[in-house]
Write a structure and sequence with these properties.
By secondary structure, this protein is α/β, with parallel strands linked by helices. The protein has 10 helices and 10 strands. It binds adenosine-5'-triphosphate (ATP) and magnesium ion (MG).
């Protein structure tokens, strides 16, 4: 299969994608993705497409393969079968320039993964210097811009131990943004945070979405999903059970299981206000 041109786009399962959206470039395409760990089949054949500027929120029970799916998209985990394209380049192709394609994705994890011995500014600047080979001064200038973008320029010289969880996560977002990704992958970015710190991280994510960033987000923050997501994907048992716009998924899902699950998490995680 060609490494440069994705297969023709298949319509979504429920055919709900807006016409306008259909014209937009596909930034992520996953086709027939499978992954097992030993005898445990975690992903059983995932097909997913994310278009430019789209915000797609993935929900599903624990152990369903949501993190594995995100990790397969940037090859932190290697799939057993299937294909993944990012911005038109197939990362799963034999001989693909994996580092180059991986650099098109920015990943934000639940546990921040900052370098504790570096200041906030240097946590953001280090990738620019080491990976992108940008000179020190320019890297620091750019890192400062990214900290400003997440509202943290005043904390540039603070170390992670001096930051709150919400601030650490915003530094992690700034670090990912600094690499100029074509898509941001968020894996439960607020689930390690105290409830009062969740809002500030969701606020930054909401701002990114409004700026047109393409985002694939695993989250059970249903207030955020209802307000910001173009599409909700419900995964269970290694498969996509149903996907569609939030209003359809919450008020008129086709599958009883979708209704049951979204009803349950909506009751638990539906209250976070995103101003
Ligand atoms: N590196 C690994 N080695 C072995 N098993 C793994 C590995 N990574 C994930 N798994 C298993 O794969 C299954 C799916 O894990 P995954 O982390 O993708 O689920 P998830 O949907 O993200 O769950 P959660 O909501 O709890 O984060 C789990 O049973 C997990 O234990
Ligand atoms: Mg997970």
């Amino acid at each position: 299969m060609s490494t440069l041109s994705p297969e023709p786009v298949k319509p979504l399962l429920d055919g709900s994608l807006k016409n306008e959206n259909e014209k937009k470039r596909e930034i992520v395409r996953v086709s027939g993705l499978k992954k097992s760990f030993g005898s445990l089949e975690v992903l059983k054949g995932i097909d997913l497409s994310v278009r430019e500027g789209e915000v797609v929120v993935i929900v599903g029970p624990s152990g369903t393969g949501k993190s594995t799916l995100l990790r397969c998209i940037n090859l932190l985990t290697e799939p057993d079968a299937g294909h993944v394209w990012v911005d038109g380049a197939e990362i799963t192709a034999r001989g693909a320039d994996v580092n180059k394609i991986r650099a098109k994705t920015g990943m934000v994890f639940q546990e921040f993964n900052l370098f504790n011995h570096l200041t906030a500014l240097n946590n953001v600047a280090i990738g620019l210097k080491v990976v992108k080979k940008i000179p020190e001064e320019e890297a620091r200038r750019r890192a400062m811009e990214e900290l400003e973008r997440v509202g943290l320029s005043s904390k540039a010289s603070s170390y992670p131990a001096e930051l709150s969880g919400g601030q650490k996560q915003r530094v992690a977002i700034a670090r990912a943004l600094a690499m100029d990704p074509r898509v941001m992958l968020f894996d439960e970015p607020t689930s390690a945070l105290d409830p009062e710190l969740i809002g500030e991280v969701l606020e930054v994510m909401k701002k990114l979405a409004s700026e047109g960033m393409t985002m694939l987000v695993v989250s059970h923050e249903m207030g955020f999903a209802k307000e910001v997501a173009d599409r909700i994907v419900f995964m269970e048992g290694g498969l996509i059970v149903e996907e569609g716009p939030p209003d359809v998924m919450f008020s008129a899902p086709k599958k009883a299981r979708t209704k049951e699950f979204l009803g349950k998490i909506g009751a638990i995680h539906g209250g976070t206000v995103v101003a």
